[in-house]
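Open question from group meeting: does this chain pack into something compact, or does most of it stay loose? Before anyone orders reagents, we agreed to write out a predicted structure and look at it together. Recording both the input and the output here so the notebook holds the full record.
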Amino acid sequence: MKHGSVYQRHARTCPRDAEGRLQAHRCRGGWAYVLEYGRDSNGKRLQTTKSGYPTRAAAQEALQETVRVLMTDVSMHALTTREYLETWLAGKAALKPSTAAHYQDALRLYLLPHLGDVRLLDLRPHHLDRLYEAIGTGRRGRPLSPSSIRRVHATLRSALNTAVKRRLIPYNPALHIELAPENPKRPRPWSADQSRRFLKAAEKDRLVALYQLLLVSGLRRGEATGLRWEDLALDQGYLMVVQQITEVRGKLVVGTPKTKRGSRVVALDQATVDVLRRHRARQQQERAEWGGAWHDSGLVVHPRGRPATAPRVRHSSLPEAGRAGGPSGDPPPRPASHEREPGAVSRCRHQGRVRASRPLHDGDHRRPLYARRPRRRPRSREPDRQPPDGVGTSERGAS
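Structure tokens returned:
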């Protein structure tokens, strides 16, 4: 690390010639220092500059103090990247559960195996280049897409920014890394006519209220599944977003909205209010039919009293009109077995027999209603072994 240098910054009032070059004068501008601490992966200098000092001596003293603090703090911390990343993640107490799970996966699968043994002070951009090249080409496991690599890079960059603030390293080597460009798929939103056709095809589906909310109000999937009846004001025509339900490692987690501005008030049109009223009337009828087996969660959208999970809302709960790539005039299919009325008849495609569906009384609603029979392993049929020529012939002839 170089100790840097000090220089005087010229003001706009300093005399210049016709070509803009400074003339000899007694400058009254302030003083500054520049500290250079290496180069990035492209050979560009990494520098820190600070100005505003009245004299040369003041700038020189500030530069020496900065160098002394950096050298002292860095030399006292000889920890590895693994130790630092684990400590950094343990101290992130304000993370959302989904973000914490993403950070844990990034550390466990990619950052710690490739960078864990490198001393934090010795971490350089070329270490990161090798990391991204290895996980991008699938040298150790499945190759990652450019967008996934950028998420891993964002995790490492955030961790190293904290290390710079704590004066564990002089600069962040992840700030000047060139990553492969992303090629995201541009969404193709439905038109108003397509949305109306879809809602018309799904009007008999038990989750039509969810589709109406997602298309009209613009709620996130987690916000729509986490909406409670107490958050609705149907007479006044609005709803309040105060929570969301997300799925983290197969478990449903109830938390606050994604951002601070996510806690908001959303206006509802009369058509959406009518759909929600019909949905509430149907839900109250189901509650009366199920009796004690009903789990009253207070949520607006749920199958049989339990919140709808994100994967089911994302794909499985959509009618065929939506899963086929766009709205159509076909009627919606029969609901899944866990969404049918008690005593409804369902046909098992594989066994070819008809049996009545049973309600879910307890346990996780994602479990199948009927346990699958274990598949029998076919017995290996070996060909009949014939004795070699000349072996056992005399015994058979003698008998």
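Observations to bring back to the group:
The chain has twelve helices and ten strands.
The radius of gyration is 33 Å.
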